[in-house]
Amino acid sequence: KYFYHLFRVFFKTTLKQRQTQEQLLQSPVPSQFMYTFFILSAGLYINFLLEYFQLSIADNFWLQYGYCAGALAAIYLVKYIGLKITGWLFNVSDATDSYIFIVFIINKMLGIFLLPFLPLLAFSADTLHSSAMIISWFGIGLLLIYRFILSYGAVRKEVKLNSFHFILYILGFEVIPLLLIYKLLLLIF
User: Fold this and answer.
1) For residue 42, which of 98, 118, 103 has the smallest C-alpha distance?
2) N or C terminus of the chain: which is more exposed, having fewer CB within 10 Å?
């Protein structure tokens, strides 16, 4: 039932979406399991990315996987807490809750999307491995663009927001931290 509602919210953006969102929010245990699944699958995918680009953090594959999953969980926990505090401070809790909901839905779908790529990245030959990596990047990019479009629409309903300010937010809180982490990893390793 949770998967049905999850896919329904993901693929439909109608007025009934609010009712389905409330149904998803009323089942916290499956939601937490799905988010844990996202952390585990995305952490493993990041681990395979580090191996692919030969940027290993640790000598042990499973220790590095733990670092990747832990870092991903910490990043999204800090983001969640920061958005909740920002929504409370500026009295836009509805907008931040909508944004958080969209981010978490897309992340759960990303965890499901990455699932077929993980065995391919783990056990395939070089040509299939490279093809799976490129296809997964394309899919992740599409999901992130879809997330930005949905979140812009949801936040714009709640707060009077200029598209320029939203682009600044995306650059400031989504892109620049990733570039800083990348630069830090290059300096360290």
Assistant:
1) 118
2) N
